């Protein structure tokens, strides 16, 4: 287990379970302490202000690699970091000594993000210098900038801003990260032990104020998707559950085996878990193709 994973288990932002836990219970440290889940540790790197208007995604790349050790190709579509630093044409990550295999966890929101992993910082910095990146200081930290790209490189973490974004959105002030937001905490408890999550944008005025699509895997062959959505109240949650059940019935057998649950307590909402089909060559269909359930929630 790499250092980043150990920090997730023992350090970071301590998050106590809310007294009114959702039906799925608390997802803090497995030992029963108040250490954050890997998901909450990751979104603890994202400021609330920085996430405004941008979708947030999380990937436990280290776990995906473990699932793929037997040669599985099921995670090829959704199990790779897909952020702009790796996919943008303006930055050749490989040329600067960056390899996706170095990344343990990736949290990306819009054009900024943060990685935890194991990086050859000296080699990367040398290549940044040779590639024309200029060194400067930002809030006491050494950063590297060139043509709208900002990087902070360490041995076990790397933060980036793209398209003119600085690092303020991945250096949140105390108490101002997404991990401090009760809605993200509630979704964390609902989603369970996910290896990937894609959050929708938060909208307090909408019937569904915040939702997320997560990916679960008991093994490389036994995978499923989960959608959690927070609503403005119990009645809306019940209406959302009825809508989901209706879509599941209408689209049979597409969502066979799906389970819909109304979330109660201080954070009402709805949860639906859908197993991937045995014939599916790729995991993640709730995110990549079968989006009927998300569409049903968007039209409450």
Provide structural commentary.
With 300 residues, the protein is α+β, with helices and mostly antiparallel strands. The protein has ten helices and twelve strands. The chain has a twelve-stranded antiparallel beta sheet, with helices on both faces. Helix 8 (234-250) packs antiparallel against helix 10 (292-298). The longest helix is centred in the last third of the chain and has 17 residues, at 234-250.
Write down the overall geometry.
Answer: globular
Secondary structural class: alpha+beta
Strand content: 15-25%
Radius of gyration from the alpha-carbon trace, in angstroms: 19 Å
Number of distinct helices: 10
User: Whole-number average pLDDT?
Assistant: 87
Strand element count: 12
Main sheet: strands, sense, barrel = 12 strands, antiparallel
Succession of helices and strands? HHHEHHEEHEEEEHEEEHEEHH
The rounded distance between the terminal residues' Cα atoms is 43 Å
| Helix residue percentage | 25-40%
Give the strand order, joined by hyphens, for the main sheet.
Answer: 4-5-6-7-3-2-1-8-9-10-12-11
Low-pLDDT regions = 1-32
Determine the oligomeric state from the structure.
Answer: single chain
